[in-house]
Amino acid sequence: MPTDPTFPQTLAQQKRQSTLQLLFKAARLCNERALERVRAGAPDLEVRPAHTALFPHIDLDGTRITTLAARTGITKQAVGQLVDDLERMGMVHRVADPADGRARLVCFTDAGRQALLHGLGVLMALQADLARAIGPDRMDALHEALTALLAELEAPR
User: Fold this and answer.
1) How many CA atoms lie within 13 A of 15 on its CB side?
2) Total tally of structural domains belonging to the chain
3) Pick the residue with more confidence: 40 or 62?
């Protein structure tokens, strides 16, 4: 199988030049560090990245599994398995959807809501550590840039 010997160099260079690739990698590494801290504080809690990736997509008043699947880009079956895990951990529960009795909503339990707040606390502590490492002005500039980027991405097209 012929390969271009310059491909690895070209790929690495393009990854370094892509701001969004850097953002994806930074987000993944921040998530890994945050999970390490959560696990250190609660070693018996078996939280995986897939669990924490689901949390931001669950609305406070509940979300259907089909909606979670669409938001996360994974199958309904995979979302169902993650929800089962989170139910066993006491983070979420399923309730009848008041708009459609046949459907179920995934809702945070009180423990799940506390876990959300705890997780944000872990992220804020990690952010403070990173601000000390790269400088508070850079962290503030990053926050401003990401806020503007999100506003653009969330705006109706």
Assistant:
1) 9
2) 1
3) 62
Query: For residue 57, what are its two tokens?
Result: 């997509």
On whether the CB atoms of residues 116 and 108 are closer than 8 A, the answer is: yes
Beta bridge partners of 96: 104
Give pTM, 2 decimals. Answer: 0.83
Within a domain: residue 1? Answer: no
Cβ pair 45, 89 in contact under 8 A: yes
Range of the domain at 105: 20-154
Q: Is 112 inside a domain boundary?
A: yes
Q: What share of the chain is helix, strand, coil (3-state, %, to 5)?
A: 70, 10, 20
DSSP states of 12-49: HHHHHH-HHHHHHHHHHHHHHHHHHHHHHH-TT----H
Asked if residue 12 belongs to a domain, the reply is no
- In tens, the pLDDT along 83-124 reads 999 999 999 999 999 999 899 999 999 999 998 998 899 999
Two structure tokens written together for 79: 């979302």
Instruction: Using alpha carbons only, give the angle 113, 51, 114 rounded to the nearest 5 degrees.
Output: 15
Question: Rg of the chain over CA atoms, in angstroms?
Answer: 19
CATH classification at residue 65: 1.10.10.10
